[in-house]
Design goal:
The protein has a domain of about 150 residues: Isoleucyl-tRNA Synthetase, Domain 1 (Orthogonal Bundle). About 50% of the residues lie in helices and about 15% in strands. The protein has a 6-stranded parallel β-sheet with strand order 3-2-1-12-13-7, sandwiched between helices. A 4-stranded antiparallel β-sheet has the order 5-4-6-8. The protein starts with a strand and ends in a 26-residue tail after the last helix. Bound molecules: ligand ME8. The site of ligand ME8 has 19 residues, from strand 1, helix 1, helix 7 and strand 12.
Length: about 500
Amino acid sequence: MKFYITTPIYYVNDVPHIGHSYTTIAADVLARWKRLNNYDVFFLTGTDEHGAKIAKAAKEKGVLPQDLCSEMSAKFKEAWQLLNISYTDFIRTTKPRHVKSVENIVQTLFDKQLIFKKKYEGFYCIGCERFYTAKDLDENGCCLLHKTKPVLQAEENYFFKLSTFGDELLKRITDPTHKEYIQIQPEGRKNEIIGKLELGLEDISISRTAIDWGIPLPFDKSQTVYVWVDALINYLTGIGFPNEEFKKYWPADVHLMAKDILWFHSVIWPAILVGAELELPKKIYSHGFFTLNGDKMSKSLGNVISPEELVNKYGVDSTRYLIVTLIPFGPDGDISWEGLTLKYNTDLANNLGNLLSRTLKMAEKNFNNTVPPQTEPNLCLVKQLNDILKENFVYNMENIQLHKASENIQSAITFINKQIEQEAPWKLAKIDKDKLASCIYSYLQAIDIIAMYLLCFMPEIAQKIWLSTGASGNIEETAKKYFADFNIPDDGFSVASSKLKNQTILFPRIS
Ligand code: ME8
């Protein structure tokens, strides 16, 4: 089975920050999860390089737009490498393969008479890369999002007949039995989209005369394709469109993004696809926006957090974990350095770190740093964990509730820690060595289970944990088998008598 997941392609006028990292890490966690479930995964990310915003940024920097794109696109690639993002392909919209794909779609819509020419006047916000009417702006005539005054522009442009798709889209968005049902989540944002669709759609301009930093329209080279139409088509280009090979992965299973661009993905994109007679994506998930100490993050406020800063403080895997679990996935949320550090210390240094260090120390002290030998493997704890975790965790991952899935793992760790408190194995060392062996054996097996559940969030740390407990085989291969049927091998994962691998402290406390 295939699974095709995408992030937005990010504008290259800005450096990658914690907001871009949020969506990209979340997509990575889901891609890794599906790979563990034996799906053939295609994970696409990339950069959006055309349009007025990029042309303006290049002009301000005194460089050519293409040079700005190459420089900034490389920064996104570096950030994703730093964060261990396992994308299948990184698309750049200025590359020839994408130009070919955009030309194909736009020409198809033109041939189907879904594109026509019209004089138009509107307020163009470069920040949003879209036209507004006066009623969309605030009382000072400013864009609600950017607080800047859009310029009134009059052009003769090509228009896409978006207005003819409203009823069709409503059916596909609201009727789960429709064979091309398109699921928009979370529910609240879906309802906002439905509300707007019910008011009716207006045709949209899909070309520009005044902006030459774009792909020329195949049927009128004097105009360029509107950057949002250009950008959305990346989801087809990335998997090989217009070559037939794109059908291996299309339709997309999940388009992931924040709420700012849900309208483009849930209305304009599906309408283009219906117009071009292509299948619709199955799910569109829009998560919330981060604010930082209550403020919108922005370059001008100087409060943007970069992935490097986070990695320098918490390490790669802890950064991945913290970013996607700090706020509920869906609503907006406020973050702060204090909040990040508190969560790091609570979940990782204390709960997980404590479990690891005390178990490994007891094995080191009492069993010469090996997995205690067993006549009868004690797997009671592991089986209990299996029952606690499997359904909840799978449900939350499948519903993209990543913070809840991480809470499931934390509850399981707390459960093991409580069991250790109850059994008080340190008291057994002198009185019952067999019982002590049995306890420690069971804790090591339980830690192996935790490592498998952590794998998509913290791939390298999970691997280190796996090695430290004397578990056999490759963690990914074992996890693939485990997640197929949740069966626990009769003798667990950590092999009796095998040597434990000493690790440096994985989660030092941070102040
Ligand atoms: O909109 N909180 O690109 P973009 C959460 N090129 N997520 C955030 C965020 C924040 N504070 N800031 C950014 C574009 N994001 C278009 C997309 S797709 C065909 C074209 C994330 O660089 C979030 O995913 O402005 C948001 O939707 C995206 O970055 C916007 O990225």
